[in-house]
Design brief:
The chain has 311 residues and is α/β, with parallel strands linked by helices. The protein has two domains: 1-127, Indigoidine synthase fold, CATH 3.40.1790; 135-311, Indigoidine synthase fold (3-Layer(aba) Sandwich). The chain has helices at residues 18-26, 36-39, 46-60, 81-89, 101-106, 115-124, 142-145, 150-156, 173-182, 214-227, 247-263, 271-282, 286-309; strands spanning 14-16, 30-33, 64-71, 74-77, 94-96, 111-113, 129-131, 161-164, 186-190, 210-211, 233-236.
């Protein structure tokens, strides 16, 4: 049963779970987790197992998980098992970016939050660290479609630390990195000088900054807090080379997925889930395993960072 936190302690319009309220009052670190990866990014029935596994990884690391979603018109921070099940299995569960939150709340809808909506709600709830798989970004063919994920603009205005495996490799990675630079979003390589490639250890793109342990991330967070800059800190944590998708298979299947999307005229919100699904099918599930490895590793790192930061 969700409760509203003590009066004044919780921003209006956001409902935190009992577990998250307790963690916040007792000083237990909290890690925000997104829900679109569960509802739209992973196939059933594996998605529910993954949602629960990610939460238990956070708990094992001594922190409190806060999966974020909209249920029956309430923006929820922290879900219990039956609520996670709704995210994973409910037919018609929507995909909600930041711009979709107000109409979803007004119409009592239910939906999963993308990186943009999750970051916004996490920050408003006072959380500092968020783990996901790969950020959205600039799609290939942007010149004609102008499809750039809302994730980027929201990160530019949200002082949250986001641990990810880079941006999804279905995107135009150099263009996305350029946009992150323009938007003043700091990108730190975690034990790497190369931007990760989501399913792949490296995208081949160079990075300007690197840290080698959670304390290194926290040192940057503290300096950013002092400077009071308003943009996110992206911690780019590559999937281990031994666990990455075979790069040759990756490139071949991606080329096919991209042309299928063009042929079927898939656009807008549907494009990212379509491409991720085509990758899973085209690689016989190997892309799914690499995606999951990346997410697990990001959740573990985010938990360590939240613990080190004591947030
Ligand atoms: N990371 C994953 N799988 C996903 C996503 C991220 O490993 O499905 C989701 C995130 O919620 C991200 C969204 O915000 O894809 C981007 O969608 P779009 O390109 O429509 O903005
Ligand atoms: Mn888009």
């Amino acid at each position: 049963m969700p409760i509203r936190g003590e009066a004044g302690s919780e921003p209006s319009g956001i409902v935190m779970s009992r577990e998250v309220v307790k963690a916040r009052t007792s000083g237990t670190p909290v890690v925000a987790l997104e829900s679109t990866i569960i509802s739209h990014g992973l196939p059933q029935p594996r998605n529910l197992e993954v949602a629960m596994e990610l939460e238990s990884l956070v708990r094992q690391g001594g922190a409190c998980p806060a999966t974020i979603a909209v249920l029956d018109g309430l923006a929820r921070v922290g879900l219990d098992e039956s609520e996670l099940r709704r995210v994973a299995t409910e037919p018609g569960f929507r995909k909600l970016g930041l711009r979709d939150l107000a109409p979803a709340l007004a119409s009592r809808a239910s939906g999963a939050t993308t990186v943009s909506a999750t970051s916004y709600l996490a920050e408003r709830a006072g959380l500092r660290v968020f783990a996901t798989g790969g950020l959205g970004g600039v799609h290939r063919g942007w010149v004609s479609s102008r499809d750039e994920s809302a994730d980027l603009e929201v990160l530019a205005g949200t002082p949250l630390t986001v641990v990810c495996a880079g941006v999804k490799s279905i995107l135009d990675v150099p263009a996305t990195l350029q946009r992150l630079e323009t938007l003043n979003v700091t990108v730190l390589g975690y034990r790497t000088w190369e931007f990760p490639g989501f399913y792949l250890h490296s995208s081949g793109e160079p990075l300007d900054w690197r840290v080698d342990d959670p304390a290194g991330v926290v040192a940057v967070m503290r300096r950013r807090d002092e400077l009071q800059t308003s943009s996110a800190l992206v911690v780019a944590n590559p999937v281990a080379v031994e666990r990455q998708l075979d790069p040759v298979l990756h490139d071949a299947v991606l080329a096919e997925a991209l042309s299928a999307a063009e042929r079927d005229n898939v656009r807008g919100q549907a494009l990212t889930p379509f491409l991720l699904d085509a990758m899973v099918r085209g690689t016989n599930g190997a892309s799914l395993e690499a995606n999951l490895e990346a997410v697990r590793s990001n959740v573990l790192l985010a938990t360590a960072v939240a613990g080190e930061m004591q947030v």
